[in-house]
Amino acid sequence: MMDAPLAKKLNKIIFDIFLPVSIFKSVYESEFSEVFDKKLITYGILSVLCCFLLLLLFVNLFCKKRESVGVLIQGIFRSNFLIFGVPVAESLFTDGSLSGKAAVMVAIIVPVYNVLAVICLETLGGKKSDAKKIVLNIVKNPLIIGSVCGFLGLFLKQAGLIIPGAAYSAVKSVASIATPLALIALGASLDFSSVKGNVSYIVWGIAGKLVLSPLLFITAGILIGFRDRELAILLAMYASPSAVSSYTMAQQMGADEHLAGHLVVFGTAISVLTVFLWVTVLTHFGFIAPAV
């Protein structure tokens, strides 16, 4: 029922409205004062930046298609942290002791993902832009605006200025549409005829996202001393598949939307196995002791 023109328009609505509102909601609902873990947050930000910089160095070595470089980098460092990762982590700690820290990490890491993704796709996507235009596009990007508004709302909430219940009910309703609608638009837009030309990139992207990235940064977290709840949050960050919104962003910013879609679809399917293996290994060796 959904043809290509309709799917394209739907992606624009998702990118301009639903995803920014969803990001705003996730940031606004955080409670920093209660569960602010300085060490974990610092490691989370620095590790994402480190992952991004490493990918900038290595992806260009084997990816020769300009419109695919930024998509591959985004597909590896940017995970489905909120929708996929956090529920997996919370299933290990059903006593509710992880939810607060996870919410704060989402509020901080998701905007970092968004900023780096915009920079990545603007500079390494399908369109050539000068420095001034790149900065302007980053400032105008709806996901960045959603993140900034979320932190502004959070600051005002701490000062006692809370969004009225009726208005926030509308915010939650719009936010809840974002991921399901993005998945529907993704499914309608998939073109499997392009898989053949992208097989090596899909393999590299999924291996980097689900195996190499978590192997490097979860191991580093263990060596630093993270265990149990903190390590479960890092697991949610790094072992999750590529974010659904990465397809929508690639499609709207002129990058290789087909590769972005394949990384999301195939990566999500394979992650069912890889996440199970990561959880099994980490619990078996005592790095994570679930609390149920």
Q: What is the N-to-C order of secondary-structure elements (H for helix, E for strand)? A: HHHHHHHHHHHHH
Dominant shape: globular
Radius of gyration, whole Å: 18 Å
Structural class: mainly alpha
CATH topology: Na+/H+ antiporter like fold
Q: Which residues form runs of ≥5 with pLDDT under 50?
A: none
What characteristics describe this protein?
single chain, 292 residues, mainly alpha, Na+/H+ antiporter like fold, 80% helix, 0% strand
Task: Describe this structure as you would to a colleague.
47% of the residues are buried. The chain has one domain: Na+/H+ antiporter like fold. Helix content is 80%, strand content 0%.
Layout of helices and strands, plus pairs?
Blueprint (H helix, E strand, L loop, with lengths): L3 H25 L3 H4 L2 H25 L3 H12 L3 H12 L6 H26 L6 H10 L1 H17 L6 H25 L5 H30 L3 H11 L6 H8 L4 H28 L8
Briefly characterize the structure.
With 292 residues, the chain is mainly alpha-helical.
